[in-house]
């Protein structure tokens, strides 16, 4: 039998039966995921396949209000964006500066492609292939 999401389920080892219990919330009532969703969405009928035009208008108004608030924050803190731009530089600019220093900067992807090429190469020795696999494992783990 299906049980509501968030229920506590256990197997009673004495009787061999499965038991389910709704979790108790702070106010003593069970608070399933569906009930939390209804609280968050308000009086919107989430079970129907369509929404009324009034419900859609209210939802769009909320979205527009949040966008306006975001724009106000951006207008109020343009110095913050400039500060971030001063601290960080684009990757293309960094690559150019490293090339001037005769240092080649490679991305993880480029290194992984080289390691796969080394592993698939027939000219590589067994030790080189093992080392390539160990290095590749590190980069794959990062991804």
TrEMBL record:
The protein here is known as: SIL1 factor
GO MF terms on file?
Answer: adenyl-nucleotide exchange factor activity
Skewed-composition ranges (Basic and acidic residues):
16-35
Q: Does the keyword Protein transport apply?
A: yes
Renumbered residue ranges of the record's region Disordered? 1-44
Coiled coil segments of this chain: 56-111
InterPro entries hit by this protein? Hsp70_NEF-Inhibitors (IPR050693)
Write the record's keywords in alphabetical order, separated by commas: Coiled coil, Endoplasmic reticulum, Protein transport, Transport
Q: Which gene encodes it?
A: Sil1
Q: Which GO terms describe its biological process?
A: protein transport
For this record, the Gene Ontology CC terms, alphabetical, are:
endoplasmic reticulum
Q: Where is the signal peptide?
A: none
